Every structure is written in structure tokens, then in C-alpha cells.
Amino acid sequence: MLIKIGGAGVCHSDIHILDSGPLSLPAFTLGHENAGWIAELGDGVSGWKEGDPVAVYGPWGCGGCHACQSSAENHCAHHASLPSFGGGLGSDGGMADYMIVPSPRLLVPLGDLDPVTAAPLSDAALTPYHAIKRALPYLTPDATAVVIGLGGLGHMAVQILSALCPAQVIACDIADDKLKNARGNGAAYAVNTRDSEAARAHIREIVGGRGVNVAFDFVGVQATIDLCTRIVGRGGLISMVGQGGGTIALPVTKPYGYSIDLPYWGSRTELMEVIALAQAGHIKAEVEAFPLASALDVYQRLREGRIHGRAVLIP
């Protein structure tokens, strides 16, 4: 399937690839967060037509193992032996005019959504959606969820939490403008975490002795991980989504009964659910659009924290 790209999201994972080169593969085009239109059907493909607007599901598995058959290609049992993890992750991705998608199973219809603003749904929304769905048993009406890091994924997480559960949300970041935006998207409280000790005390003041029920860390550096371990309560959950290189120590004492989750991306079915949320107007990515030719400048802006919401490159 040949896809004409409408927009390709710019993700911190791209920076990890650029900086550390974890994939020992031939050179490839970045861009794993893509949406556009079908430009040409592959042999034997039915049920689609040229011009259909689509989102591209990002993690490409083997297609045949138990996880892939249940649409969870993010958990493919054969990832270690595959030549590529997906478009933009070993195969050519969407930071181009066109990209090739090897199977129609990897496409999800967009309906009337604009591919430019819908591109971030395939990762910036899907990843927090997957993490939040896994945490739903903790997110009761009397619960508190903390979202740390209000960038591409975190600003979507606040909206998704508001759409999916009745728990109160505390939004955390070091940027006051992002905190203000989170309050507008449903967060009950906004806490600046530049001073981590003051932030811990403020959060503890809000939640009291019970502590936080779920702490979602969308940064993953040592400071944010340490904050999570100091605010989560007994029987709570720390959801480690960000890949900032921090580590977590597992105490053998208190708080008793808390768990750690390591969610990764999401399933194809969950992407369909995310798109349905967007179609119903419950979530919307804050997008800064840039021409594809400015990609290097956009990555530098991302490194410096000067992107609001999600940057999307347009061919």
C-alpha cells in the first residue's frame, strides 16, 4: 500500500534514535507517527479505495503470533528477530511525500479527521491511551492521577483521563504555559515541578495521607521517577511511559502493595478507539505544523522544549 503523507509527527523517540542509534540497520527515513491518504492499493487488497484518509499503525509485528493476532503488535513475540520495528523504526517512515505500508491491517480509517492534526493520534494519543486503559481499575471516583510531563504525550493524557474516568487529575510540568493548558483540558490541579521537593509537598497536601493512586511519568528522567516514588500511595501504581533514562529502585518496605507498569505504545484496536474519541470531539492534539524541509530545526526546538503539544511535519 502506498500512502500519500498528510502529516508526520515529531517524537522524542526519534531523538533517541538519532543520538544513540539503537537500530543496527541500514539507513531509513524517520517518522513513525503518520496519517495521510491511500495513493495506491497493493495487489489483492480489498475494502479500501484510493483517496481514503488513514492513520498508519506504528509498531509492525510479525502479524501471526498470539499478540499480533489479537491486534497487539506492540507486544509481538518475534520483535527481536524482525528486520524492522515499523515505518520510521527500521523501515522508511512518513517524513517524506509517500511511504509504503506492507499490509492493510496496519491502516485505520480516519473518517472526517484531518490527517495533519490526526497524525499524533497514532502515538502521542495511542501511547497514553494504552497506559491509561491498563490503569483504569485504579482510577475510581475517589482516586487521584498525576500526569508528569505535559509534552506531546502528556497533554493528550490529561484529555484522555478526563474522557475515560472520574478520577481527579494533577498535571505536573516545569513550564507554566503547559500547566495552564492542562487546566483548560480538565486537570483539577497544576503543579510546577521545577522544585521537586516543593512539588512533592504540594501534591501530598492535595491528596493527603492516602497518596496518589496512579502516577503517569511521561518523562522518565531520574528526577521525575523519584518524584513518582515519593507520592504514590499504598496499593497504587506507577506507570513508566517516558524513556528518559532514569531507573527505579524497588523498596521492600513501604509503600506496601504498589505496582510498576511499563506500557509500550498500544494495539491496533486501541488506535481505532483513540480515533473514535477524536471523532467524537473528546480529545484533540495541540499541533504545531512545520514544512518537512524544516525538520532539523524542529528537532532542535524539541530538544530545547520549545514545542507546544506535538510538532507535525507536512510534505
Give the tags.
Rossmann fold; globular; 315 residues; 7-stranded mixed sheet; 29% helix; single chain; 6-stranded parallel sheet; Quinone Oxidoreductase, Chain A, domain 1; alpha/beta
Walk me through what this model shows.
Helix content is 29%, strand content 22%. The chain is of the alpha/beta class and 315 residues long. β7, α6 and β8 form a beta-alpha-beta unit. The radius of gyration is 19 Å and the shape is globular. The longest helix has 12 residues. The model has no long low-confidence stretch (mean pLDDT 95). Strands 1, 2, 3, 4, 5, 12 and 13 form a seven-stranded mixed β-sheet that branches. A six-stranded parallel β-sheet has the order 8-7-6-9-10-11, with helices on both faces. It is built from ten helices and 13 strands.
Poorly predicted ranges (pLDDT <50, ≥5 residues)? none
Q: Look at the structure and give the CATH class of the largest domain.
A: Alpha Beta
Q: Considering the protein shown, what is the CATH homologous superfamily of the largest domain? A: Medium-chain alcohol dehydrogenases, catalytic domain
Q: Mean of residue pLDDT?
A: 95
Oligomer: single chain
What is the CATH architecture assignment of the largest domain? Answer: Alpha-Beta Complex
Span between termini = 18 Å
Strand percentage lies at 15-25%
CATH-defined topology of the largest domain: Quinone Oxidoreductase, Chain A, domain 1
How many domains make up the 3D coordinates?
Answer: 2
Please estimate the helix content: 25-40%
Structural class: alpha/beta
Please state the CA-atom Rg, rounded to the nearest Å. 19 Å
Order of helices and strands: EHEEHEEHHEHEHEHEHEEHEHE
What's the total number of strands?
13
Summed up, the helix count is 10
The rough form would be described as globular
Largest sheet report: 7 strands, mixed
